[in-house]
Structures are given as C-alpha cells and as structure tokens.
Amino acid sequence: MAAVDPQQLRTFVTVSRLASFSEAARELGYTQSAVSQQIAALEADVGAALLARRPVGPTEAGRRLLEHAAPLLVRLEAARADVARLAGAPSARLVLGATPLAVGAELGHALGEVRRVHPRTEPVVRVLAQGVLPAQVATGEVDLALIDGLAAPSDPLPLPDVGPLRTVAVDEQPIAVALPAGHPLAGRSGLALADLSAARWLDAPDLTPPVARLRAAAGVDGFRPATRYQGTDLRGLLALVAAGHGLTLLPEPVLAAVPGVAGAPITSPRLVHRTELVHGSLPEGPAALLARLLARSPEEVQADQA
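Predicted structure:
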C-alpha cells in the first residue's frame, strides 16, 4: 500500500461525515469531480472500496479507516501548530479553553494579572466539552485549556493522546452525589458508588462524568440514565436534580447551599474531581504567563495575596 495522502484522507473524512460528495466539495472548496478523484485515488492506495455511493456512507473497510483517520489528522495538525509556535514571534493572543466546572475564582485572579502585565491583550475564554479540548490545544485552536473530570486521587485525567502536551494538576475536590433535598440518602456521611447503580441518573456528558465512566469506576453494571441533559448550564442540571429527575456526581463544594439540592460524599471508591492545565509549547507572552499563574501551588497563591 502506498503512503496515504493526508488531503485525500481529510476529504474521505469529510464525505463520510456529510454523507454527500457535493456537500463535501462545497465545504472543502473543491469541485465535486475533484472530490470523487481524491476518493478514487485513496481507494486505489489502500486497495479497498471505502465509500458506498448510493446512499453515500463508509463501507466496513471505510469505517475501519475512519477509526485511524481522525487521530492521524489531529496529530498532523498538532505537529504543524507546534512547529509554528516554536518558529513564530511572541504572540499577544490569549485563547483559553475550559470545561464548564473548571472555571473558578483562581482563573479570574490569573487573568487579571495577565491583563495588568499585557494591557493590550483581550483574553478569550471558550467553554467547551472535555472531549474536544485536548485536540483543540494540540492543533492551536486554543492556546491552553483547563479540563476537569473524575479520577482517583493524584491520578491524571484519562485524556486522549493527540500530541506532546503537558498536563499540570491545578485542583482536586471531593466528589459528592447530588440528591433532592428530601432524598432518604441526603445527609449521609458517605456512600458507596456501587450502591447507587440502580438509581435514576442524569446523563450530562458536557458537565458530569458519563454513565459509562460511573460503571467503570464502581465496577458494576447499572447507572441507567433517566434523563439526558445536553448543555453546560449547571443551574439547569441542578434544577432537574431538585425536581427528582435523577442523580449526578459533582464536586462537593458546588453543592453547598444550593436550594433544593443536597450532597452526600462518595467514599467508595476513592474518587476526586480533578482539574488539569493542558498546553503545548508556549512562546513567551500572555498564554505562557497564564500557564505559569495557573500552575502555582495554593501556598504560592496565598503568599501573593498576603
């Protein structure tokens, strides 16, 4: 098999995603004939039909190639972005990606310091789901990211391998199950996650650990979602908890003094809500300064505020 052309691979991914040669041509800025020629050349290179034509969709071989294609294309874009950062002049740009629960007071203080040192910088904060942020850091769509998730104490978050990124722990908080205030388990000093496997759960993948992650952490089946919540509005999620539509896991401090909601800490297995700073190479400038500020220990922050 000849070496796969990255552009042909990108065209194949686009046609598969849109299920249309004409729509892919419009998105990529090619003629439909050029798209067809690229797909035919790629199929000749790999020695297999990759796309059914009517309706348009990947064949079995095409589905297998798609599994490889996305990470390959991300790594290529990551390499290009990494070299560009090293070769480029210092940049005044600062684009921070963050998962919804990773945005805290420390970020506000750090951004204030960055604006004091770099007064012409206008920071941009993009709140996005965990699944997309590592790739966006690697490819340079954001300069750095704060990503949160469920982990064992002191264990790193299980992030995808999208390039040579650095991860630094910036916070760990205890985990609690969010319950309606009148729930029989409200006020318990500790709960085993496995004992909650038959409860009604809210599946809010942009805010909380997905139910598949809960099954893996507890080591039991169950955790069937009663309601799926799509979005990053924490208040809306907690309103559903208060109304009895399901349980969810959140950092324990988030649940303090929320009307209609109570929290009970999860004591088995030992789990924490972990937040990590993720970035690649950072030329000197606002993004590099923000990375240094966010990576400081709590003791260093307190010393500066004293």
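Summary: Residues 6-85 form a domain with the Arc Repressor Mutant, subunit A fold (CATH 1.10.10.10).
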